[in-house]
Amino acid sequence: xxxxxxxxxxxxxxxxxxxxxxxxxxxxxxxxxxxxxxxxxxxxxxxxxxxxxxxxxxxxxxxxxxxxxxxxxxxxxxxxxxxxxxxxxxxxxxxxxxxxxxxxxxxxxxxxxxxxxxxxxxxxxxxxxxxxxxxxxxxxxxxxxxxxxxxxxxxxxxxxxxxxxxxxxxxxxxxxxxxxxxxxxxxxxxxxxxxxxxxxxxxxxxxxxxxxxxxxxxxxxxxxxxxxxxxxxxxxxxxxxxxxxxxxxxxxxxxxxxxxxxxxxxxxxxxxxxxxxxxxxxxxxxxxxxxxxxxxxxxxxxxxxxxxxxxxxxxxxxxxxxxxxxxxxxxxxxxxxxxxxxxxxxxxxxxxxxxxxxxxxxxxxxxxxxxxxxxxxxxxxx
Length: 382
Fold this sequence. Notes:
The chain is mainly β. The protein has one domain: Methylamine Dehydrogenase, Chain H. It is 2% helix and 41% strand. It has one helix at 21-26, and strands at 37-38, 43-48, 54-59, 64-68, 77-82, 89-94, 100-105, 110-114, 120-124, 132-137, 142-147, 151-156, 161-167, 173-178, 184-189, 194-198, 203-207, 215-221, 226-231, 235-240, 249-252, 260-263, 268-272, 277-282, 287-294, 300-305, 311-316, 320-325. It has a 4-stranded antiparallel beta sheet, with no helix packed on it. A 4-stranded antiparallel beta sheet has the order 2-3-4-5, with no helix packed on it. A hairpin with a 5-residue loop joins strand 8 and strand 9. The radius of gyration is 20 Å and the shape is globular. This is WD repeat-containing protein 55.
């Protein structure tokens, strides 16, 4: 059963229907998605628990919150908050087993909290010499952290010490990903390069050639055969698993930027942008499928997918966490054959809450151009 209590696709009456007030008072209404969570300060980071309907938030004041979320009206509530960080909390991540929450901050500290009651279990003060940017659990005991100066550390929680330290990037590390075997760690950096580190052998492998703009995100797709990186220029760069030196393909989204990205299926990612729009994008063949949701005009900081892949959460500068129904994305099949289409049609709405259907704010969101000269829109080589 879905831990959120959200209706299965097609079960819901949708949120737009308003019953009479007496009926609402008698029975809690079931929504298509959980209600927005309104925060006291803007969130830098969110994470969704791997098994339960729990959401962690880290904000610009350094506070960390845990919420339980539900599609039952009024069912979402705050479980605990923690104010141990001295400066802005930059990233939060649940351990693989879901018992611990890792948080990193501009104050250079790493905190490990017990998910159940929010107790601070481990504090690694001055973990890096620069402000921390991101954290990624690799195994139950091993996790990685990246900082503003481009330094990477891989830690063993049992030793409370790093087992790998590397300074290969010239600019901040924005995001990290790891393969299914927990062997290779990939880092995206503001210097435009993708870094590859071998965790098992505890060594640096290589940097890709620099791409245009800062690399802001990195995800694995196609059962680990492809790696996609988002850039601040609004381009997605694709790498073959065995060919990290140079991008095999690139795809320019008609977006101001790609600031964050999460994989939904083996072929589809959702991207968040400075324009506040969450786009669903199919990779190879490369297409923008449409708009999943939006924080009107507010830059999107982070996206997270719920277990089961039916629900997407997003946070932005508007001090809200919003939830979006992404259950339709798994069923979309993108044909290799591209039909001739009118240039400049509106971005297609992919959920009932997505304003893709001609609302004024989105009137200037246009479909993607046919690949620009030199940009491949082919399947690339596997």
